[in-house]
Automatic annotation (TrEMBL):
Gene Ontology cellular component annotations, sorted alphabetically: RNA polymerase I complex
Annotated protein name in UniProt: DNA-directed RNA polymerase subunit
Binding site for Zn(2+) 2: C80, C83, C108, C111
Species this protein is from: Pneumocystis wakefieldiae
Localization per Swiss-Prot or TrEMBL: Nucleus, Nucleolus
Length: 119
């Protein structure tokens, strides 16, 4: 058994070992076993950073399809750029950081044309 930081790995196959309080730790992959007495006493401190993954990995993907079932959309007297119908449905969502404007999703009530703007 070897370890890197606070993670323990099987010496035979390299699988991450699940540390339980039994007398032996058994590798789930190759069934090799190690006595728990071989584990050194460690004081483990972990920290996390909220933005460690970056916004592109944690930002939720929101599309018009996910908005269709939502009942918070409102009707506005706005002309559709495609068919010139005078009423559109709209909904705003805060998709970027709080100090930036919201994204507004529009849908024509007549032809169904959809578009969004970043306010």
């Amino acid at each position: 058994m070897f370890f890197a930081g606070s993670a323990f790995f099987c010496s035979s196959c390299g699988t991450l070992l699940d540390l339980v309080s039994d007398a032996y730790i058994v590798c789930a992959q190759c069934r090799a076993s190690y006595p728990t007495s071989d584990i050194p006493d460690l004081y483990i401190v972990t920290t996390s950073r909220p933005k460690a993954l970056g916004p592109s990995l944690i930002q939720e993907d929101i599309s018009f399809d996910s908005l269709e079932s939502d009942t918070t959309a409102s009707i506005i007297n706005e002309t559709c750029p495609k068919c010139e119908y005078k009423k559109m449905r709209f909904q705003t969502l805060q998709m970027r950081s709080a100090d930036e404007g919201a994204t507004v999703f529009y849908e024509c009530l007549f032809c169904g044309y959809r578009f969004s703007t970043n306010e």
